[in-house]
Specification:
The complex is a heterodimer of chains A (203) and B (788). With 203 residues, chain A is mainly beta. Chain A is built from no helices and 18 strands. The longest helix of chain B has 66 residues, at 5-70. Classes of the chains: A mainly beta (203), B alpha+beta (788).
């Protein structure tokens, strides 16, 4: 696999002495913002100990024969619900290692839940509708965020100190679709730009 | 170029027609070939398009299969969970169901399931699959080109590719070939390194590979059909680029069609055209041969007739056509007949004497020639020339017309006497008779004399009787000795000889006639004789009548001809004068005389030698100068004898020369006095010492009183002028005595001595001195001496 060179530009902004926000701007080689990229930061390179709680619902709905959201970040061991908001039935599955599951045909307004215990990625699809693809990023750090339509991912309350920062995207052209950022330490609020190359065709 | 008209016409027509037919045949062939090629080109292009469709259809079929499998949930589950045996079995299952040669799975991590990884260049394949979604195209697997179709396996993200392959082998190509309307040959080439190879085992794969390389290098997807000539034949080749899986290793579809196949349907047509051309050409050759023969044959006949006409043959051309050649032949025949008629008349005129109707001179010659040709050995043709005497008298008396009648009458009479004789006319007054006799002897003469009497009977002409006198000359010759004109000439000469002798009949006397022809080269021979000493002198002694001693000699030239013997001077001296050789002759005589005089002196005889100088030399001062010089140098004693008439031509020069001679002490003697135009005036002018009386007077001295008187008075005249007198031609004792009585000084003649050679002269002079020691008073003693 061809690995594109990564252009890494870090700009360290002064912020609070103990905890500050890290803003990572994810862009393609052409400079356009890339959404649905997951930035994970490991302070001192260590996973977070203890339970992790994100402030967004652990839910992947099926609406208009699409998974919504396309990418969902959940902590390991979280229970993710798959409500069917369509009129048709779906057959949601994942063949991903450690996170294999299969939710056989279920209908409208029905919801199924699956506990995802393995850190990694669960690529989800619908056996009936090939075009339906979604990803659940199962993380073991509390510092994770997904880039928005503007390609910006903000991680709140990141303590100062050395860090290992990674960016992941389902179509990122790198082993395990993941790339480590050049950022090695943060002090206060910081801004970071991550440039990544995606596979053409979206897989 | 061509010697015969027929050949010329045939070659021309046949050649033109053959040329036209060849042009037709060539254009037919070119059109057909072009057409066939055009057709094949179209077909190749169409087949190329068909191939596209076939290719697209199969691609679709393979893709459908791949897609079907790649989306199967169970399969995807197997792939995602890396259940290799399940994947392998699923792939195999679908491969068998679709009847494919190749089906395998390539994982996104490069794992290959369903095929031996060693047979595939995995790196290249993975790149191609990764590079393009659903990549497809030609790819070499295990050394053979395959059409590969890939489909991604999504579960739901990309986990690998399912790849199906159809081998582009002979079977596949055969299927494609069968789709084409024409029996073309399809092959797939792919490039390995720098060479293009094919799995097809064709003889000219190498040449085709080169062609493919060229065609693909041009960069076009489809090349224009190209002609390819190889050992296997002439082909039309279309090269179509094939899409390859990786887009780097090129491959091409090659459609080939042998031109021979394209031309095959036209073979019967071309054969028919060829046969038609050959048959047409043969027909034209035959037709123009026949036509030109009809034209040329009469012309050849005319040409042959003209040649025979030229040789004098009677000819008639038998051409019965009513065209121009027919008219020409008729005209020719008419002309030939007229020529023949005229020729007969001309021949008749040429051989006949128009005035008498008798055969003419030419006719007689021909008759003689004809007879000579028929003669047996030893036989002769006898010819008589019968001349009418007194021609001029007769003609004046009776006129020319009657004279011709007379000649004709005589001719008729001869025929009556001898019906076998042939009579013709030679000249106006001479008839020619070719006798039946085969030998001419003197016994015949009396017979002819008798016959002449009969012939000479008076002839009645215009109511008057005319007397005829005739003389006959005879000549005869055997075959091969002389020709006819010469024989006639001899008869004419015999006639002249007869008349000269006053005889009625005479046979040709060759001896009397001599041979004028033999004198033609005489002068050059004489000059040769001067050089070789064949010319020498005889000397005739001159007797002094007072002392009885021999006091002088006259030198007379003689010529011992190598083939003709001793020649008389009158035979060549006159000719030498005529031809300007007299000077050389005289020089020779002077030289010999000097030698002879010296020889005589040595034996005690000192005698003056008289030398005859021609009248033509007497006015030649240069001759005189040289002669004087030569004589003075030799100390010779000479006397020059000249005739009076010699002086008449150019008197001034001649008298000057004589004076010069006198001054040099060379006396001059006037020769032959009295025979020519003796002029007293010249006698007076010429300063001479001696006068010689011509022998004509001396010979008849005894019998003719007048001559005696003339000689006496001449002697007296000469003496009066102070000249000595010599008498020539003294042949008798009486004459000698009379001359002595008349007071003549010297005598010369046979009675004294003949001209003799030097040796005989020496003997004669010796004898003379013994018998005549003293002056002679009487001739008796002298005569005794002369008798020796």
């Amino acid at each position: 696999m061809k690995i594109a060179p990564i252009l890494f530009v870090a700009t360290i902004l002064t912020g609070s002495a103990h905890a500050a926000d890290l803003t990572v701007s994810v862009r393609g080689p052409d400079g356009k913002p890339v959404s649905d990229a997951v930035v994970t930061v490991y302070p001192n390179g260590q996973p977070t100990r203890g339970p992790i709680k994100f402030d967004w619902p652990y839910r992947v709905a099926q609406r208009n024969i699409q998974f919504t959201p396309f990418v969902l970040i959940v902590p390991a061991g979280a229970e993710v619900s798959f409500p069917n908001l369509d009129k048709v039935r779906h057959h949601v599955y994942s063949f991903s290692d450690g996170n294999k599951f299969e939710l056989k045909l279920y209908g409208r307004e029905e919801s199924r839940s699956v506990r995802l215990s393995a850190v990694g990625v669960a690529a989800i699809g619908c056996n009936i509708h090939d075009q339906m693809v979604g990803f659940i990023k199962v993380v073991d750090t509390a510092y994770a965020a997904k880039s928005d339509a503007g390609g910006v991912a903000v991680i709140h309350g990141l303590p100062d100190g050395p860090v290992v920062a990674k960016v992941w995207h389902p179509y990122l052209r790198a082993p395990k679709n993941e790339k480590t950022l050049a950022l090695t330490a943060v002090r206060g609020a910081a801004r970071e730009t991550a440039t990544i190359e995606l596979r053409p065709g979206g897989h | 170029m061509f010697k015969r008209l027929q050949t010329k016409l045939t070659v021309l027509y046949a050649g033109l027609f053959a040329l036209a037919l060849s042009l037709v045949a060539v254009s037919v062939y070119l059109t057909i070939a072009n057409n066939a090629q055009q057709q094949v080109r179209g077909e190749l292009a169409a087949t190329g398009t068909v191939f596209d469709s076939v290719w697209a259809l199969r691609t679709q079929r393979l893709r459908d299969g791949a897609d079907l499998l790649s989306r199967d949930f169970g399969f995807r589950a197997a792939v995602a969970t890396r259940d290799a045996p399940t994947v392998d079995s699923a792939v195999t299952n679908l491969r068998q169901r679709m009847g494919l040669e190749l089906a395998f799975m390539v994982g996104i991590d490069g794992d290959v399931v369903g095929v031996d990884p060693a047979k595939i260049d995995i790196g290249k394949l993975w790149s191609a699959l990764d590079h393009e979604d659903g990549a497809q195209g030609v790819f070499v697997v295990d050394g053979a080109p395959y059409q590969l179709i890939s489909a991604p396996v999504m579960s739901p993200n990309l986990t690998g590719w399912i790849v199906f392959g159809a081998r582009l082998d002979d079977r596949e190509m055969t299927a494609l070939e069968q789709l084409a309307a024409i029996r073309l040959d399809a092959q797939v080439f792919d490039r390995r390194g720098e060479t293009w190879v094919t799995t097809d085992k064709t003889a000219d794969a190498k040449a085709l590979g080169a062609l493919v390389a060229t065609a693909t290098a041009a960069g076009k997807a489809v090349s224009a059909p190209t002609r390819l000539r190889t050992a296997a034949g002439d082909n039309l080749v279309l090269v179509k680029r094939l899409k390859t899986l990786d887009g780097q290793t090129p491959a091409a579809l090659v459609l080939r069609y042998p031109m021979a196949l394209a031309m095959a349907p036209y073979q019967p047509l071309m054969a028919a055209v060829f046969i038609a051309v050959l048959a047409g050409a043969a027909l034209v050759v035959a037709a123009s041969w026949a036509l030109s023969r009809d034209i040329a044959r009469p012309i050849a006949a005319l040409e042959d007739a003209a040649r025979r006409l030229r040789r004098g043959e009677a000819v008639h051309v038998d051409v019965r056509s009513s065209d121009e050649i027919g008219h020409l032949s008729d005209s020719f025949n008419l002309m030939a007949a007229e020529i023949r008629e005229r020729e007969v008349r001309i021949t008749e005129l040429a051989l006949r004497d128009a005035e008498t109707g008798l055969p003419n001179h030419l006719a007689m010659e021909r008759e003689i020639e004809a007879r000579m040709a028929r003669l047996a050995p030893g036989e002769q043709v006898v010819v008589g020339a019968l001349g009418l005497d007194r021609f001029t008298v007769l003609r004046s008396a009776i006129g020319y017309a009657l004279f011709n009648q007379l000649v004709a009458e005589i001719g008729a009479r001869i025929q009556v006497i001898d019906p076998e004789a042939v009579v013709g006319r030679l000249t106006t007054s001479t008839l020619c008779v070719i006798s039946r006799l085969t030998a001419l002897t003197d016994e015949i003469v009396p017979h002819i004399e008798k016959a002449l009497v009969d012939l000479a009977a008076p002839v009645r002409l215009g109511g008057e009787l005319v007397d005829v006198h005739m003389t006959n000359g005879l000549a005869a010759a055997e075959a091969g000795t002389i020709d006819a004109p010469r024989l006639i000439e001899q008869a004419m000469i015999a006639l002249d000889q007869a008349r000269a002798c006053g005889r009625k009949v005479s046979i040709f006397d060759a001896a009397a006639y001599g041979d004028p022809a033999s004198n033609l080269s005489l002068m050059s021979e004489m000059l040769q004789g001067v050089a070789t000493g064949a010319l020498f002198l005889h000397h005739q002694p001159k007797l002094d009548l007072r002392s009885g001693a021999i006091t002088g000699l006259e030198a007379l030239v003689r010529w011992a001809h190598p083939t003709r013997g001793l020649l008389r001077p009158d035979l060549f001296v006159g000719m030498a004068e005529e031809t300007g050789h007299i000077r050389a002759l005289t020089d020779c005589v002077i030289d010999r005389a000097i030698l002879d005089q010296r020889a005589l002196r040595e034996v005690g005889h000192d005698l003056t030698i008289s030398i005859n100088i021609s009248g033509r030399l007497i006015d030649d001062a240069e001759f005189a100068d040289r002669a004087i010089e030569k004589i003075a140098a030799a100390g010779a004693r000479f006397c020059f004898e000249i005739t009076e008439t010699a002086v008449i031509g150019n008197p001034d020069v001649a008298l000057g020369v004589l004076a010069k001679l006198n001054a040099a002490g060379i006396p001059v003697s006037i020769d032959d006095y009295g025979s020519g135009l003796s002029s007293l005036a010249y006698l007076k002018q010429i300063n001479a010492e001696e006068l010689k009386i011509d022998k004509a007077f001396v010979l008849s001295l005894e019998n003719d009183a007048k001559d005696a008187l003339l000689v006496k008075s001449t002697i007296d005249l000469a003496h009066s002028l102070g000249l000595k007198v010599t008498a020539e031609g003294v042949e008798s004792r009486q004459a000698l005595a009379m001359l002595q009585m008349m007071g003549c000084d010297l005598a010369q003649g046979y009675h004294i001595a003949r001209p003799m050679a030097l040796d005989k002269l020496v003997v004669f002079l010796g004898d003379w001195q013994i018998s005549n020691p003293l002056p002679v008073g009487e001739g008796g003693a002298r005569r005794a001496a002369v008798g020796g």
